[in-house]
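Re: weekly structure request thread

Next one in the queue (262 aa):
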Amino acid sequence: MRTMRSGGRAAGTRSVGGGVRLLTDPTFDAPGDYPMGDRRLVKTAGPALTADETGAVGAVLLSHDQHPDNLDRAGRAYLGRVPLALSTAAARERLGPSVTALPNGETYEIGAVRVTGVRAQHGPDGTDHLTGFVLRGEGLPTVYVSGDNASLDVVREVAGRFGPVDVAVLFAGGARTPLLGDAYLTLPSAAAAEAARILGARHVVPLHFGHWGHFSQGPDTVVDAFAEAGLSERLHLPAAGETITFQVSSGDAVGLDGIVAQ
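Done, posted below.
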């Protein structure tokens, strides 16, 4: 399994056995201020990959469309270039026919890859429920993409149904905004390490922890948290633009061979 990180944001996984390339939460805009009503998010660095550099994509897995750090202007335009985008029913209502709704618990088959929608809680109890994804297939590893989830109870639900997983892609920047004070909107580093333990994940790729001002934690805290939990050997933390390779399944079946972050 080859992994590239291009800026702290989940941007894609691809399957060798299934011949399917998937992209998650496309964000390609330049750094700057991004208004959200009377608030704003600040993007401090651009992606290492442009939309044109992503190559052919079979589908986009969109955790949600409301926030520019998950889907920005260029990302919205990009949805018109791909044959399929799976997301929430609310995203379908807002974005129209470019999105196919994937309710939590339902599965959509893309070639040999089965994509199941799972719950994601974007903050403390009572906040929006978005979507994460679990990827599976005959002879392929199980991959969990958390989306903007901050709840370990949600992780326990996923582990109970799909665990142990081969690869956990965890959005782990400990996002915070003034709207909810000190509450985390995504997993902080220590919770990401605990999520890895709960999932029984053989490999963990933390993403969504850099290049935006509202991320309170980053690679240093992730490394420390996994070391403190005794899980350092599971952690894969490529630098932006770097590709790493690791084995995700025994025998000859390698399965999914790429996760790209942006």
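The CA atoms of residues 66 and 91 lie 8 Å apart. Residues 1-17, 250-262 have pLDDT under 50 and may be disordered.
Next request, please.
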